[in-house]
Design goal:
Layout (H helix, E strand, L loop, with lengths): L1 E4 L2 E6 L11 E5 L10 H8 L4 E5 L15 H15 L4 E6 L1 H12 L4 E7 L9 H9 L1 H12 L2 H4 L10 H9 L6 H11 L3 H6 L5 E6 L7 H10 L5 E5 L6 H4 L1 H15 L4
Parallel strand pairs: 3-4, 3-5, 5-6, 6-7, 7-8
Antiparallel strand pairs: 1-2, 2-4
């Protein structure tokens, strides 16, 4: 479906069901250079179990009008604009990578409607490799190559996906190339410049779940464990040892089961 935010058309997948604001909402926020399709398996799962679902394309990504937003702070405020526009009252937020930073920024400042927060593969800061940042600005294809190489663990590189014959890495290429030309650089630069993650994490009061990949090369264990130590005492920490950075794609069954248990407990449909 499309909604209008700040005079721009924004796309959000609803998981194959019509959006119903009376139902609890599961809001999915994608990572750098990606889009709503990253969450395809998850959106349908929750949509057919009594939840309304929004998998948004951030501005400048695939079906959403640009330009891309330039800072995590701006993105967090933009998420609040989305929630206000659709008049949602019981929200479970799920973010991956950059989406975690956006989620923390949003939830720390606008917690009223939020029932739970799930963070996948991130620390409270995400400093970006200088080569990757420079490549994203001047040689986007080289940046995408590096992201696909570093982002996936064994399952991604050996095409061990849930859909026979479907390559996770090829899918990643397709998504990133569908954005406006500077979207990947804008995303990575926003991550690199975000310095308020520790403060945001310390201000989170809602139930929080942190899911990490044991072989993640883009959000190293040391950084993610620092985030875990700051989040509220109610937080749950899960480590999927065999996964790289792209946890929702590499280990979808395990990741889905963890999200399901946490959201069903903290934001039930009845």
């Amino acid at each position: 479906m499309y909604i209008t935010i700040n005079n721009k058309k924004i796309f959000a997948s609803t998981g194959g069901k019509s959006f119903d604001k009376k139902q609890p909402l599961v809001l999915f926020i994608h990572g750098s250079g990606l889009d709503h399709s990253f969450w395809g398996l998850y959106s349908r799962f929750f949509a057919f179990r009594g939840y309304s679902v929004l998998c948004i394309d951030l501005p400048g990504h695939t079906h959403s009008e640009g330009p891309p937003l330039s800072s995590i702070e701006e993105m967090g405020a933009w998420i609040n604009d989305v929630i206000q526009e659709i008049n949602a009252s019981k929200v479970s937020v799920i973010g991956h990578s950059q989406g975690c930073l956006i989620s923390m920024e949003y939830v720390s400042k606008f917690p009223k409607q939020v029932k739970s927060l799930s963070l996948i593969a991130s620390g409270y800061e995400t400093p970006v490799n200088s080569f990757l940042l420079e490549a994203a600005k001047n040689k986007p294809k080289a940046a995408i190559d590096k992201m696909m190489s570093w982002g996936f663990g064994r399952a991604g590189h050996f095409h061990q996906g849930t859909i026979p014959g479907n390559s996770m890495i090829a899918g990643g290429y397709k998504i990133t190339q569908g954005n406006v030309p500077n979207a990947l650089y804008a995303d990575l630069n926003a991550c690199n410049n975000y310095k308020d993650g520790k403060k945001a994490a310390s201000n989170i009061t809602v139930p929080c779940q942190l899911i990490l990949g044991g072989k993640d090369q883009m959000a190293p264990r040391k950084a993610t464990m620092k985030l875990a130590s700051i989040l509220p005492s109610s937080r749950k920490l899960e480590i999927i040892q065999e996964s790289g950075h792209m946890v929702p794609l590499e280990t979808p069954n395990r990741c889905r089961d963890l999200l399901k248990a946490f959201i069903f407990d903290n934001n039930p449909t009845s």
